[in-house]
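Our preliminary data section would be incomplete without showing what the modeling component actually yields. Below, a chain of 198 amino acids is followed by its predicted structure, encoded as tokens that our downstream tools consume directly.
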Amino acid sequence: MKIKEIFLVSIIALFFNNSYAQETISIKEKSWYVPDYVKTQFAGNIGLVSVGVGYQLFNKVLSSELLYGFVPEWASKADNIHLITIKNTFPIFRKEIGKNLTISPIAGFTTTLDIGTNSFTTLPSKFPKDYYVPTAVHFTLFGGVSVHKDFMNSKLFKGADLYFELGTVETYLWYALATKEVDLVDVFSADIGVNFYF
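Predicted structure:
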């Protein structure tokens, strides 16, 4: 299945989830390691497409996620890229905008480890000492907006977020601020994603 098709299926599930009949289920206290939601994201400096699980912490003040990201060879113009990311998102505030619908500006940061063959954590011996900094670990900063919908009549998911973000990698930002060769607007990229809550 192509990446666009995977993302499209996620979006369709978001909007048609309310068609499921409501069923009375006894709710048990879940274990701490069971995630609160699953997610899929398109772009955003953590892979062309990324998937993973997330946890809402500190009374929903922080959402923390573990994600696997992938960039295929045709998009990277090199080898396939495999990424592991820890993403942390903070809702700035929440505003109800309709029945079972909430909008929230969000901000956050990620830590990403490239586990493929395109980067390194220690400098290869072929380079002079201190010639390059390690390229396998990156940090991103982002801000955006998230729309959350509760599903009152669903037995599959309790709710979902659809979000849009704009962010940058720390090295891109450093180059934009430290040199005149890179414009600040050129270092930002957008992403879109969906969270499905259990």
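The chain has one domain: 3-14+35-197. DSSP finds three helices and nine strands in the chain. Preliminary results of this kind motivate Aim 1 of the renewal.
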